[in-house]
């Protein structure tokens, strides 16, 4: 897809300096890579926010307690299989 950008002069200067160092095959490629990195960063921030909200979500916390209770016997069995009989936890 073709796109026209209006860049501030200082940003365009920085773009040309980067190109002079050979950081990308073309200015368009460099702009494309920068946008992709920025969008990836936004995606990571969004995921982090979702995980952070789990810490205060009562329904999520209740589900985790329920699952922990359901798997407690299996967890204990696993510990018995991987620990020597005389080891203390």
Characterization of this structure:
The chain has one domain (20-82). Helices cover 73% and strands 0% of the residues. It has helices spanning 9-20, 27-54, 58-82. The model has no long low-confidence stretch (mean pLDDT 91). With 89 residues, the chain is mostly helical.
Radius of gyration over all CA atoms, rounded: 26 Å
Strand content: under 5%
Shape: elongated
Strand count, sense and closure of the main sheet?
A: none
Tally of separate domains: 1
The secondary-structure element order is HHH
Using DSSP, what is the number of strands? 0
Number of helices: 3
Low-confidence stretches: none
Our measurement of the CA-to-CA distance between the termini, rounded to an integer number of angstroms, reads 60 Å
Estimated structural class? mainly alpha
- Percent helix, as a range, is over 70%
Q: Give the mean pLDDT.
A: 91
Question: Top keywords for this entry?
Answer:
mainly alpha, 0% strand, 89 residues
Topology:
Blueprint: H1 9-20, H2 27-54, H3 58-82
Could you give a quick summary of the protein structure above?
This protein has 89 residues and is mainly α.
């Amino acid at each position: 897809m073709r796109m026209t950008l209006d860049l501030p002069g200082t940003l365009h200067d920085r773009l040309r300096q980067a190109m002079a160092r050979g950081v990308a095959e073309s200015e368009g490629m460099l702009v494309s890579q920068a946008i992709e990195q920025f969008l990836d960063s936004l995606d990571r921030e969004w995921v982090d926010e979702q995980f952070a909200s789990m810490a205060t979500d009562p329904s999520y916390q209740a589900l985790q307690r329920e699952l922990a209770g359901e798997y407690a016997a299996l967890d204990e069995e696993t510990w018995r299989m991987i620990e020597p009989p005389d080891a203390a936890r």
